[in-house]
Write a structure and sequence with these properties.
alpha/beta; Rossmann fold; Alpha-Beta Plaits; 5-stranded parallel beta sheet; 24 helices
Length: 531
């Protein structure tokens, strides 16, 4: 098993060396990944090393151990903290508890005592890791929730919320057989003449589950919104009439067994799973005819609207896929999504007039993308655009696809340009703020982000990617360059220069300066003067 990572922080080198050498890190299940001699250095190391345990002295120069723990508790919430001190004072222990410190040890540090503390922490970390990784427990919880997950999966299928490329993967995960030549959806309307309870929907669902057995068909029944829905896989479209016959039998049983009149709308069969939302839409449309055709039976949309077929629908999944490709992926991904949408219209066999609803929903998606990115509508759709575009303005699905692709690529280009400009402005503004405020000792990433109206986590990632170093490292560079300039051009005392560069503690300033330039401020000034 991977060992837990420890960061050791103490300003006394002999204590660090003693702890480092005396502890059987490997035997205890740990590895010492870093050491620091003060809290500020420890912050930088913790950011890079992500330790599981931080062992720190309380009284240290530049930043004490309690302040360090307070900051790291926020930045590394899963880490454990152990503080040690030579001061047996209750106030320290009370503050340590407030900082979410696991253990408080008095100096001199006893190897046996520290080993016992580490063993205790390892048990805690093991328990937390086990809780997160316990596959058996997760599997058990998963199996318990599987019926609900299946029901949600079927509902999302009918509403077009399952990405096409994940349908078979999710079906296998939920142990659902979706093989078949074609598919049809049916929706049950329960007419009981009064407000019904959830138990009545459950009883209807159970009635269909136990009695719907059409030959050559596989049917799944599930609770759907406030009622019940059916999903049937069949070898050929003509088998839908076997489904209708079986549904009519269950409707008759419902009147006898449950004293309930059921009307079931049956949608037109579709050849692809991604077209199930259209079949479901047909089932809902069929139910609208129940006042004309009669209640207590199956109503097939194909009998009432024989020319309707399965019209293409721009589903929620389609919108998510197109939006994601435009905003987050490359041109190749956009072309692939648009081609798939074009093929959906093309393979439906419908006229452009019958595809009007599909096109309007597609157009709405593009307008949402445009406005959400803060782009001018005319920049994307052309001068004088009013939104009055119809599917019939195109002679073919391919022409409509080319029109859509052109707009999508234009939006993608403008969003990328905007994002690049925004990132550049943000970094420029951040650098300007740092240059203006580096002399303030309280300068922090949180204070800067409050000025920029950004989250610290997002800013830190973006800043490091664009600048090539962390915020702390960049501020240090700015302060050191400013300090070096003052040392070269003025005769001011070192402590005054330190204060002007944001260091209240001149000793820490000298420490950082020497680490940065390899010389103390005094020797740097002397060397510079000698050139």
């Amino acid at each position: 098993m991977e060992r837990y990572r420890v960061l050791l922080v103490d300003d006394e080198e002999d204590i660090r060396v003693g702890i480092s050498r005396k502890m059987d890190w490997e035997g205890l299940g740990f590895t010492l990944v870093g050491e620091a001699e003060n809290g500020r250095d420890a912050l930088e190391l913790a950011e890079a090393l992500q330790p599981d345990v931080v062992l720190t002295d309380i009284k240290m120069p530049f930043m004490d151990g309690l302040e360090l723990c307070g900051i790291l508790t926020v930045r590394l919430p899963a880490s454990k903290f152990v503080v040690f001190s030579g001061f047996d004072e209750f106030e320290y222990a009370k503050q340590a508890i407030q900082m979410n410190v696991s253990e408080y040890i008095l100096k001199p540090i006893n190897a046996a005592e520290l080993s016992a503390v580490l063993e205790k922490l390892k048990n805690q970390l093991d328990a937390e890791r086990m809780e997160r990784r316990n596959a058996e427990l997760l599997r058990q919880r998963y199996e318990e929730s599987l019926p609900i997950l299946r029901e949600q999966f079927f509902t999302r299928l009918l509403e077009g919320q399952v990405p096409r490329e994940r349908m078979l993967e999710l079906a296998e995960r939920y142990d659902v057989d979706l093989s078949g030549g074609c598919f049809a959806a049916a929706i049950v309307h329960i007419d009981c003449g009064r407000e019904r309870s959830e138990l009545e929907s459950l009883s209807v669902e159970q009635l269909f589950s136990e009695n719907l057995r059409p030959e050559q068909l596989r049917c799944r029944t599930f609770l759907y919104n406030d009622s019940v829905a059916l999903l049937a896989a069949m070898p050929a479209p003509a088998a839908v009439y076997d489904l209708i016959q079986a549904v009519n039998r269950v409707c008759a049983l419902a009147e006898s067994y449950l004293d309930q009149r059921l009307t079931v709308g049956v949608g037109a069969p579709c050849a692809r799973l991604e077209d199930l939302p259209q079949s479901a839409a047909g089932a809902r449309s069929a139910l609208e005819y129940r006042g004309l055709v009669g209640k207590g039976q199956a109503i097939y949309i194909g009998d009432l609207e024989p020319d309707a077929g399965v019209r293409p629908a721009f589903t929620e999944s389609d919108e998510e896929e197109l939006t994601g490709a435009v905003k987050l992926r490359d041109e190749k991904a956009v072309r692939a999504v648009v081609e798939r949408l074009t093929d959906k219209v093309r393979s439906s066999g419908q006229t452009m007039s019958q595809c009007q609803l599909f096109f309007l929903e597609l157009l709405t998606c593009l307008l949402r993308l445009t406005r959400g990115a803060g782009l001018e509508v005319e920049t994307v759709f052309g001068t004088g655009f009013t939104g009055a575009v119809q599917a019939t303005d195109f002679t073919s699905p391919d022409q409509m696809g080319r029109w859509c692709l052109e707009r999508c690529l234009r939006i993608q280009t403008l969003i990328r340009r905007q994002r690049t400009d925004t990132t550049g402005r943000m970094v420029k503004e951040a650098k300007a703020y740092i240059n203006a405020h580096y002399g303030e000792s309280e300068l922090s990433v949180e204070k800067l982000c409050e000025h920029l109206h950004l989250s610290p986590a997002y800013f830190s990632t973006l800043f490091k990617r664009e600048v090539g170093m962390s915020f702390i490292a960049y501020v240090t560079v700015v302060r050191m360059e400013a300090a070096a300039s003052m040392l070269r051009s003025t005769e001011d005392k070192t402590y005054l220069i330190a204060r002007r560069c944001g260091y209240d503690d001149p000793n820490y300033f000298s420490y950082v300066f020497k680490r940065h330039f390899g010389l103390t401020p005094t020797k740097y000034r002397a060397g510079d003067a000698g050139n």
